[in-house]
Amino acid sequence: QVQLVESGGGLVQPGGSLRLSCAASGTIFSIVDMGWYRQAPGNQRELVAGITFSGSTNYADSVKGRFTISSDNAKSASYLQMNSLRPEDTAVYYCKLTDNYRGSVSTYWGQGTRVTVSS
Fold first, then answer.
1. Cα-Cα-Cα-Cα dihedral sign, residues 36, 1, 104, 102
2. Which pLDDT tens digit goes with each residue over 81-115?
3. Cα(81)–Cα(46) distance, integer angstroms
4. E-only strand ranges, the chain
5. Secondary structure (3-state) at 29
């Protein structure tokens, strides 16, 4: 049973920074990719940033140049450095991990961590 736990959320003023962390526990066979998503009230969950096992990254247009995703494959961990935060970044942030075991792909989600950007 794989569990993902996010940490690092909180209240920050506009222009501030936060660093989110995602730690995985349990048996992970072969990481395909990891990612961060967010969901604001009344909105659908959306991709914020993703990173493949080989280190290729992709970002939502709204966070390019402000957010940076990184990972530690040995620890099955991912991180999201968020700079120049804006009120519209307020949301619950979820981490995701995709695992591949002999061709069977499984996706795991964390429980979410709340980020509030407000003065």
1. positive
2. 999 999 999 999 999 999 999 999 999 999 999 99
3. 17
4. 3-7, 10-12, 18-25, 31-39, 46-52, 57-59, 67-72, 77-82, 91-101, 104-109, 113-117
5. coil
- The predicted model gives 36-46 an average pLDDT of 96
pLDDT at residue 1, rounded to an integer:
86
Within 8 A by CB and 6+ apart from 60, the residues are: 46, 47, 48, 49
Which residues neighbour 90 within 8 Å (Cβ) at sequence distance 6 or greater? 40, 115, 116, 117, 118
Nearest C-alpha neighbor of 95 from the set 19, 8, 21: 21
* Distance, CA of 54 to chain centre: 17
